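Backbone-to-sequence.
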């Protein structure tokens, strides 16, 4: 069996590929080792952004491959300092470059909001990182004495372009509108300046923001929740680790 994993800060996406079937599983990263240890003798391919989990994998697993930045440089040109970039960002960019082409912008809405850009020469040139919804709501709660801890859901996410969607009438509403406007405005400004042809939305909070990010009908806007694992799948296919049948079965189950 081949097991492909995208280990994120909050969630880990796991793809099990065997001769009989292809299965997808998502677990909390803090429970990942406990969940996966029974498969420790299988063949693993990882993208990981959590150092302590990576250390545990090296200690407990044998047949493993962490996809690093050097592995990806044969498939994508990079104008970025490689010393401190996560392989997840390059896997996203590699997949988007291969499938969607040049002038593509990737918005990953998770623990952090990460924006990446592929220019007209098909090069990955970098982007922006700022706090995600959960960090912002928790940060306000933990660093003030009176502001409440709130939850933002699909019903709260509206384009902040009118009085109703910009001005809160109570403290909780003000926090919600402030955070949504903060996130939306940061993304919108990036997109407005760089004018991408494609805008790929991903991450755990991506679905919430998908509709309001379709603010420009000249841009092709697409939502792909599990983008990193698609990068892992494509890399494994290019490296002939996956057969064509395994590749298409894997992509089908993700999309």
């Amino acid at each position: 069996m081949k097991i492909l994993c995208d280990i994120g800060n909050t969630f880990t996406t796991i793809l099990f590929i065997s001769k009989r079937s292809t299965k997808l599983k998502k677990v909390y990263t803090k429970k990942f080792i406990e969940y996966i240890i029974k498969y420790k003798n299988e063949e693993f391919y990882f993208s990981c952004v959590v150092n302590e989990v990576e250390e545990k994998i090296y200690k407990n697993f044998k047949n493993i491959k962490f996809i690093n930045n050097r592995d990806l440089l044969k498939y994508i040109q990079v104008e970025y300092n490689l010393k401190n970039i996560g392989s997840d960002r390059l896997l996203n960019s590699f997949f988007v470059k291969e499938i969607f082409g040049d002038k593509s912008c990737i918005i990953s809405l998770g623990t952090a909001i990460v924006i990446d850009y592929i220019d007209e020469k098909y090069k990955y040139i970098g982007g922006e990182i700022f706090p995600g919804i959960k960090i912002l709501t928790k940060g306000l709660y933990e660093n003030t004495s009176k502001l409440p801890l709130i939850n933002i859901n699909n019903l709260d996410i509206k384009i902040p372009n009118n009085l109703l969607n910009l001005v809160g009438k109570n403290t909780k509403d003000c926090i919600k509108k402030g955070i949504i406007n903060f996130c939306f405005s940061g993304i919108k400004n990036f997109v407005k300046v760089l004018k991408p042809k494609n805008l790929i939305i991903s991450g755990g909070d991506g679905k919430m923001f998908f509709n309001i990010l379709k603010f420009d009908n000249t841009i092709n806007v697409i939502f792909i929740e599990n983008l990193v694992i698609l990068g892992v799948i494509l890399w494994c296919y290019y490296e002939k680790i996956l057969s064509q049948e395994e590749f298409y079965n894997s992509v089908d189950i993700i999309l």
